């Protein structure tokens, strides 16, 4: 099944469980930047999810839906954009992608991934949201996390969704951090 141009769907609350992770850039010691608790970018189970793309291909026998071309996912104040997004569903008897009752196993995004919520943003080349393991991995030659003027750069961000624990890896190089001292004063107020 193929739907063109601008497939616009409201997906069941199962996609909301993806949470797309939680990112909070904390100001403080440089050591905190590479392993920290992150919260802020998250989806809410009580708000509808809207997905737009140039094309949607549903493959019920393979339990997946493939969104391609200018993919944009919005729920509340959270936005995810990518070139492609593949949603893999758990194979459950009688559940189909088109009926909206299939549970999501994982979501893969690729092609200039952008994730934002309020003042918090993350960018990378590809990402994986694994609902079974409750993890998010954002990868790229340059993964950038930012909140206001605080900027963290690495090549891989790992987030544990249930705890909010996150780690930014350097992948052979070094993690780069730019902190705005004014943001620390604002957090303390």
Automatic annotation (TrEMBL):
GO MF annotation, one: glycolipid transfer activity
Signal peptide: 1-16
Domain Organic solvent tolerance-like N-terminal: 50-164
Regions that span the bilayer: none
A biological-process GO annotation: lipopolysaccharide transport
GO cellular component: cell outer membrane; outer membrane-bounded periplasmic space
InterPro entries: LPS_export_LptA, OstA-like_N
Gene3D superfamilies given in the database record: Lipopolysaccharide (LPS) transport protein A like domain (2.60.450.10)
Keywords from the named record: Signal
Pfam families per record: LptD_N
Classification via PANTHER family: LIPOPOLYSACCHARIDE EXPORT SYSTEM PROTEIN LPTA
Annotated protein name in UniProt: Organic solvent tolerance-like N-terminal domain-containing protein
Organism: Sinorhizobium saheli
